[in-house]
């Protein structure tokens, strides 16, 4: 849990390295693991509400601190998702929190974004326990799209908004005779959402 040295130790030959027979990564059950695409880092999450990044070349914990926002109180599998490096300047990881998706920088551990479903969307029946809980995340290969599933049975697609999307919405509002003030407020919120998604999905500069 706090081994930032790894098997190579201080001198690269094992000096200061720890015995591995009884090593632990979490204070609770580990219910999610995933690799970076190059295989150099292993991400683990546990019911102790911690996410840890291990350098698999040395076995050391990178000691990235993701703060107190993580929620993980279920024993079911809960796997974080790492954005393909093609679409990210740095390694970015998405964490399936209870009612939102958190976006972190893997190396810094800093919280970058929170993805939430608009409150205007009807919620599921109360017969489902904790219906807003995100259960899994998946990235669509060769596309800039992430899919999330929730305990209420819904599956949602997260993707950048296109120019065509914006023009279509503006035309629909104009036809409906929406008041200028309401149109301006909606446009402001749309621009904010567009900026968030654009920041998450901008391609790596060549």
Describe this structure in words.
It is a single chain. This protein folds into two domains: 1-159, Methylamine Dehydrogenase, Chain H; 162-206. Helices cover 17% and strands 25% of the residues. It has two helices and eleven strands; from the N terminus they run βββββββββββαα. The chain has helices at residues 163-176, 180-201; strands spanning 30-35, 41-46, 50-55, 60-61, 81-82, 92-96, 101-105, 111-115, 134-139, 146-150, 155-158. The longest helix is centred in the last third of the chain and has 22 residues, at 180-201. The two termini are 37 Å apart. WD repeats lie at residues 23-64. It holds the Pfam family WD40. This is Anaphase-promoting complex subunit 4 WD40 domain-containing protein.
Task: List its salient traits.
WD repeat, WD40_repeat_dom_sf, elongated, 25% strand, 17% helix, 2 helices, Rad28/ERCC8/Ckn1/ATCSA-1, alpha+beta, single chain, four-stranded antiparallel beta sheet, Methylamine Dehydrogenase, Chain H, Anaphase-promoting complex subunit 4 WD40 domain-containing protein, 206 residues
Q: How many H/I helices?
A: 2
Which second-level CATH architecture of the largest domain applies? 7 Propeller
Instruction: Give the distance, in angstroms, between the N- and C-terminal Cα atoms.
Output: 37 Å
- Could you say which structural class the secondary elements and strand pairing correspond to? alpha+beta
Under CATH, the homologous superfamily of the largest domain reads: YVTN repeat-like/Quinoprotein amine dehydrogenase
Strand residue percentage = 25-35%
The percentage helix is 10-25%
Gross morphology is elongated
CATH class of the largest domain: Mainly Beta
Report strand order across the widest sheet. 1-2-3-4
CATH topology of the largest domain: Methylamine Dehydrogenase, Chain H
